Every structure is written in structure tokens, then in C-alpha cells.
Amino acid sequence: MIIEEKFARLRTYRNNINRYHWLLKTELSALERQFIERRLNEEKSAMESLAASSIPITFEIPNPITPPPAV
């Protein structure tokens, strides 16, 4: 899968997650709320999995800068 497709999928997951958050703020039956919460968790999991597999970025914490000794 090329990088543009991965970014498109990540955007789709993000949009779905935002939509589910918005829906959870509305008045829903218990069954509807349960379904949306399950779908929200599935979308988050899929997004995290794709992001971890396609953008392997790690950051190193730099050593602290120590001031030079006083003369």
C-alpha cells in the first residue's frame, strides 16, 4: 500500500471517530449508544494499528545541556 493510500485511510478513520464522538453527544437509545461505542473503539484500534505500521517514527530524548564550569 502506498503512503497516499495510508494517509487517506488515516483521514477516514479520523473523520469516522469525530463523527462517532458527535453522535455520542446526541440523544440515543442504549442499543444505539452501545453500537456507536463499539464502532468508535474499532475505528480507534484500526487507526492506531495503521499508524503504527506505516509511520515508524521514534524520538530520542536529548541529553540535558549542562552549563560550563564557573571560572
Write up what this structure looks like.
The protein is built from two helices and no strands. With 71 residues, the protein is mainly α. It has a domain at 1-6 and 29-50. Helix 1 runs antiparallel to helix 2 (30-54). It is elongated.
Give the structure's gist in a few sentences:
By secondary structure, this protein is mostly helical.
Features:
single chain; 71 residues; elongated
SSE topology sketch:
Layout: H1 3-24, H2 30-54
Helix pairs in contact: 1-2
Main sheet record? none
DSSP strand count = 0
CA gyration radius, whole angstroms: 20 Å
Q: Which regions are unreliable across 5 or more consecutive residues at pLDDT < 50? A: none
Shape verdict = elongated
**β-sheet strand percentage:** under 5%
The DSSP helix count reads 2
Element-by-element helix/strand order = HH
Query: What separation lies between the terminal Cα atoms?
Result: 59 Å
